[in-house]
Amino acid sequence: MSAVETTAAAVEMEHVESHLHPEPTFALEAHPAPTGREEIWRFTPLKRLRGLLEDVVADAHLEQKLELPEGVTLTQISLDEANALGGTAPFDRLGALAAKNAGTAHLLDIAAEAELSSPVWVHLHGTSVDDIVSGRVVVRVGNHAKAVVLVEHTGSTTYNGFTTVLVGDGAQLDLVHVNDWADDAVHAEQINARVGRDATLRQFEFTLGGDLVRTSTNVDYAGPGGSAELFGLYFADAGQHFEHRLFVDHNAPKTKSHVVYKGALQGQKAHTVWIGNVLIRKVAEGIETYEENRNLVLTEGCQADSVPNLEIETGEIDGAGHASAVGRFDDEQLFYLRSRGVSEAEARKLVVRGFFDDLIRKVEVPELAEKLSAQVEEELQRHVLAELD
Predict the structure, then answer these.
(1) 327 pLDDT higher than 60
(2) Is 156:63 a contact under the CB 8 Å cutoff?
(3) Cα–Cα dist 145/87, whole Å
(4) Alpha-carbon 170 to chain mean position
């Protein structure tokens, strides 16, 4: 038996379950309708999900535009075929409903050993909030391939998605999600990623629009040596609810994870939620993990909830830690800039730009990085900062 098979067998025998995460399954009956008191639902305004928790099959779809470089195919497959490809089953009712009611699934396949000359670009656009849209996607990256996949969301919709990401042994994937919805959109999505032996996943999530956005990213490992870096940026305005949930399951030895999410809030009843859970199983010796969340509150009337968690089953690890902060502008930074003739409005903009800049620069697609910087600038023109100009 190989080392990977031995590790997988050990995990299967343990049946170690996170105290903070439900058992994954496609069975909808195992995910009853929430009351709002459950740990994974207590921050979510359930009424604003606009029927996404109901078992409704609809024929509506998002409009789709694609740019597929050589070495990439996109095919339609059945839901059963999608489930059989592997990956972790849904952790909650939203994921189970999306997997059940999507009708068909899309398989985005990147050939083994391919090194893409340009990014895969998927643009999904909503045209109405009246119909529920369910989506089921599998992103499969072959062994030793190297790729960048960009998924951009725009328009108005009521959308629930379940995405499986399979990163083959030795492969490298940058997966970028941009949630730039119209102000009336509702978007729920679960992204379950499995990272192969000595493979690398870098996921970026940029949430800049929508009425309610609730995403859940869950990572585990198919063998030793895998690495996952999860980066996020969100900017909530008045009345918006942005919720990002992360779960990293270190189920193999010598694996790594690094989570950094940063958010800014402005306007009455802007609400952001960040939940970071890491489970280190007994088999996961020699792992390294760190999770960080920083929130910048720009005006009165906002609320940022930040909850990091670590569950450790073994002491034989190389490092584990977390950091979380919610705060206002740094008065010293503002004073420094104001003392050099910079207006208050411009000083605040410079501080926020600097707060986000390191995350934006990690995206190795120049045109996307420029676009994201421009979108952050547009956010900074709104509400109180606009009034200060």
Answers:
(1) yes
(2) no
(3) 18
(4) 22
SS3 83: helix
Q: What is the spatial distance between Cα 139 and Cα 75, in angstroms, rounded to a whole number?
A: 11
260 closest CA partner among 287, 216, 234, 290? 290
CA dist., res. 151 & res. 165, Å (int): 13
Alpha-carbon distance of 253 to 66, in angstroms, equals 37
Question: Which residue's structure tokens are 């008191």?
Answer: 37
Instruction: List all residues 6 or more positions away from 287 whose beta carbon is below 8 Å from its beta carbon.
Output: 250, 253, 254, 255, 256, 257, 280, 317, 318, 320
Instruction: Please give the structure tokens belonging to residue 49.
Output: 């999900």
The DSSP-derived string for 150-198 is: EEEEEEEEEEEEEEEEEE-TT-EEEEEEEEE--TT-EEEEEEEEEE-TT
Which phi and psi (to 5°) does residue 144 adopt?
Answer: 65, 20
pLDDT digits (tens, 9 = 90+) for 132-165: 999 999 999 999 999 999 999 999 999 999 999 9
- Alpha-carbon span 122 to 209, nearest angstrom: 18
Please list the alpha-helical segments (H only) found in 36-167.
Answer: 79-84, 93-101
Q: Which residue has the higher pLDDT, 109 or 363?
A: 109
pTM for the model stands at 0.91
- Report CA Rg, the chain: 21
